[in-house]
Amino acid sequence: MFLKGFNLDLEICIPFFLCADVIIAFIFSSMFYVLPEWERLVLLKLGKYRATLGPGFFIIPPFIYSIAAIVDVRVVTQKVETTATLTKDNVPTKVTAAIEYEIENHQKATTKVRNYLSTIIWLSTEALKNTIGGLDLRELLSNRDEIAKQLKSQIDNATAKDIATSAINTVIRQKKESCGELTQIIYNGDHIQSAVF
């Protein structure tokens, strides 16, 4: 009689223990993180910013600690294209820019802005429009170094407060439909290169 009751209890308990083992194994395995050289982990403790970790091996205890984001710290190249924008002398022109940037403050990028990538694209597009709108077509084609500096400065100023990014390189391509002239402006740190094809 006792053995029959014991067997019945085992039949009920085995599925329970199996489920408990699976849950414990899942929680235990999710505690371990290995970050490569190009990633940083933004850690929260009870919902508040605690630290930025990486690269390396980390054990993050569950429930008390949580992960806000894992941020890629490599330089990102983003294409920014404006619609037909009027220059200062009312000439419609279309400009495409390639912006290279990197995240400098991982905490701000993840806790101050919901989607920092789309915010950077939007701010870069607005900076490009403002740059074009403040110049006439002759200035747009001739003052290449000043345009590159101005665009980089506007992007840095716009993203400094909330995202803390740095624009490393700015490339602008402007197609002049009348003569097919393609102007390229490259700003890289303190060195400026210009070429007309």
- Give unreliable regions as ranges: 176-197
CATH superfamily of the largest domain: Band 7 domain
CATH architectural category of the largest domain: 2-Layer Sandwich
Query: Level of helix content?
Result: 25-40%
Summed over residues and divided by their number, the pLDDT gives a mean of 75
* Count of structural domains: 3
> Major sheet, described briefly?
5 strands, antiparallel
> How far is it from the N-terminal to the C-terminal residue, by CA?
96 Å
Oligomeric nature of the chains: single chain
CATH topology of the largest domain: Tetrahydropterin Synthase, Chain A
Can you identify the CATH class of the largest domain? Alpha Beta
**What's the total count of β strands?**
12
Structural class: alpha+beta
The SSE string, one letter per element, is HEEEEEEEEEHHHHEEE
Strand order of the largest sheet: 6-9-10-11-12
Question: What is the strand content?
Answer: 35-45%
Rg on CA atoms, Å: 27 Å
Using brief descriptors, characterize the structure shown.
single chain; 197 residues; alpha+beta; Tetrahydropterin Synthase, Chain A; 5-stranded antiparallel beta sheet; 3-stranded antiparallel beta sheet; 12 strands
Explain the overall architecture.
With 197 residues, the protein is an alpha+beta fold. The model is unreliable at 176-197 (pLDDT under 50). Strand 11 (181-188) and strand 12 form a beta hairpin. It is built from five helices and twelve strands. It has three domains: 1-30; 32-73, no CATH class; 76-196, Tetrahydropterin Synthase, Chain A (2-Layer Sandwich), CATH 3.30.479. It has helices spanning 2-29, 106-111, 116-133, 137-142, 144-160, and strands at residues 32-35, 39-45, 48-53, 56-59, 65-72, 76-81, 85-86, 92-93, 95-103, 165-176, 181-188, 191-196. The strands form four sheets. A five-stranded antiparallel beta sheet has the order 6-9-10-11-12. A three-stranded antiparallel beta sheet has the order 3-2-5. It is 38% helix and 38% strand.
